[in-house]
Amino acid sequence: MEADEARAQSNSEMRFIALELMKLSFRRKVPFSRIARRFVKNVYFLERLIRAPSAKKSRPAARLGAKMRR
User: Fold this and answer.
1) N or C, which end of the chain has less CB nearby within 10 Å?
2) What are the residue ranges of helices labelled H in 1-70?
3) CA 51 from centroid of its chain's CA atoms
4) What is the mean pLDDT of the chain?
5) CA angle, residues 37, 49, 26, in degrees to nearest 5
6) Distance (Å) of CA 67 to CA 7, 32, 38, 51, 64
7) pLDDT above 90 (res 62)
8) Rounded to two decimals, what is the model's pTM?
């Protein structure tokens, strides 16, 4: 039963993320596949940052107001 609940929760989160990416795709007039690929790339990048040794975390942080690459 617990596995079913976890799967249902995961499916719900995936639907939510997909809808948000679809909205973003529509607003930016960019294909959904490009937006989705970028999202997945950012997820893996964040995972690497989280798992990185603390020595690598000492790099200066990017400015918050800096323009993001598209």
Assistant:
1) N
2) 2-28, 32-51
3) 16
4) 85
5) 25
6) 37, 22, 16, 26, 9
7) no
8) 0.66
User: Rounded distance, CA 2 to CA 15, Å?
Assistant: 20
* Share of residues in the chain with pLDDT > 90 (%): 69
- What letter would DSSP give residue 63? P
Q: Is residue 2 a contact partner of residue 24, using CB atoms and an 8 Å limit?
A: no
Give the residue from 35, 1, 42, 43 showing the smallest Cα distance to 18: 35
Q: What is the pLDDT of residue 59?
A: 60
Residue 21, classified by CB atoms within 10 Å of its CB into exposed (0-12), middle (13-18) or buried (19+), is middle
Distance from the first to the final alpha carbon of the chain: 42
